[in-house]
Amino acid sequence: MIGLNDIKNARNRIVGHIISTPLVCSPTLSDICGVAVGLKLEHYQTTGSFKLRGATNAILELTEAERAHGVVAASTGNHGRALSHAVRAVGSRATICMSRLVPENKVSEVRRLGADVRIIGNSQDDAQKEVERLVAENGFVMLPPFDHPAIVAGQGTIGLEIVEAMPDVNTVLVPLSGGGLAAGVAAAVKSMRSHAKVIGLTMERGAAMKASLDAGEPVLVEEFPSLADSLGGGIGLDNKVTFPMCRALLDDVVLLSESEIAAGIRHAYVREREILEGAGAVGIAALIANKISGLRGPVALVLSGRNIDMAVHRRVVNATGNPPA
Questions:
Q1: Residue 113, Cβ neighbours under 10 Å: how many?
Q2: Catalytic annotation on 291?
């Protein structure tokens, strides 16, 4: 279990390398919900998502010798982008393995930052197998997107900032995929405000952490295309960190349909004036769909990323019915 001291140490390590993002009031969501709602603007990070915190913390924890070997990771896009940015700052190099489901706009950004990109298979599990091969053959240091203490501690710094900005927070809504963000935020929030609820939000199709929590152990799931593509991928059958933390710390997990996620993206743009990818909009989607039972305010929700293909964003925003394919 990652604790409050680990997260505070991570904040001291990454200060100056990341943005301490604002937590701003949303009058529209506050009116809809009848309680105060604040938006944690993590999509304002340099690489467009919260992933920069964990990636930077993990890179700065490496020895000079480890950095010299280079790092490798599987990614659905945002971790790869963050890791590629972080290694450039310390003179290291990254190899990022992604499946064919990762949108091209995310792949191209990872390449632009100078990483060696490998497109492997149709799932994050397939990409992870390539990571393990490269570690064995080339001696790269593996920095996974979520199941790593330094990654979780880095993401947990968001929780510190939430409680500091909203000391009376009662509910925190967090996108949930492999659990690095949810576990880190929950660890920080519950250490400082023990009775606050932390709720994970994910898509209906291919929700690996939800399926694993229901089964009582990590399980494999089939991956499907989704507007919330960043929430796809498995959690790893040998998950050591995020599964037990999410099981212990999350108060609930809420599933969202593709049409609900699309509505969240549209609301973010039309009412909040924010451009969000599907994963970043699940908190808004859950609130406007009234999916959180017994909601207690004040509420903080993490807008986790903005790295959506803008052609897709235009289609979603302009749609009036079901989300575009």
A1: 20
A2: no
Q: Which residues contact 163 (CB under 8 A, 6 or more apart)?
A: 169, 188, 189, 192, 193
Query: How many Å apart are CA 270 and CA 317, to the nearest integer?
Result: 8
Q: Which residues contact 321 (CB under 8 A, 6 or more apart)?
A: none
Query: In the prediction, which pLDDT does 323 show?
Result: 46
Across the strands, what pairs with 142? Answer: 72
Cβ atoms of 38 and 26 closer than 8 Å? yes
Q: Is 230 one of the annotated active-site residues of the chain?
A: no
Among 51, 106, 197, 210, the active-site one is 51
Indicate if the alpha-carbon torsion angle 104, 105, 106, 108 is positive or negative.
positive
pTM: 0.93
Task: Name the active-site residue from 49, 75, 123, 304.
Answer: 304
Radius of gyration of the CA atoms of the chain, in A: 18
Burial group, residue 309, by CB count within 10 angstroms (0-12, 13-18, 19+)? middle
Q: Which residues contact 11 (CB under 8 A, 6 or more apart)?
A: 157, 160
Alpha carbons 39 and 23: distance in angstroms, whole number: 5
Q: Position 31: which residue type?
A: D
Contact 263, 289 (CB under 8 A): yes
The mean per-residue pLDDT over the stretch 45-51 comes to 96
Calculate mean pLDDT across residues 56-76: 94
Q: Are the C-beta atoms of residues 268 and 284 closer than 8 Å to each other?
A: yes
pLDDT for 320 = 64
Indicate the range of 123-127, 214-218, 268-272, 287-291 predicted with least confidence.
123-127
